[in-house]
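Sample entry (72 residues):
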Amino acid sequence: MLALSRKLQESVIIGDNIEITVLSISKDQVKIGINAPKSVSIHRKEIYLQIQEENQQAAQMDNTAIEKLNNL
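Predicted structure, serialized as C-alpha cells:
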C-alpha cells in the first residue's frame, strides 16, 4: 500500500486519467473528489464487496433451475 500525505485542494494522479483531490477535512472525515473517465467504475468498498457477493450468489444458480428454464 502506498500512503501519501496531501493538504486541502492537493491531488494525486493515478495513471494518465484519474485524479483524486482532497476537497475538505473535518475532525474525523476527509472528503475527496474523484475525476475519472466514465468507463472506470468507482464504488465505496462496502458497496463493491456487496456487489461481488451478489454476483457470486447469482453465479451459483442451482442446475435444476437452469434445467427448468430449458424445458420452458
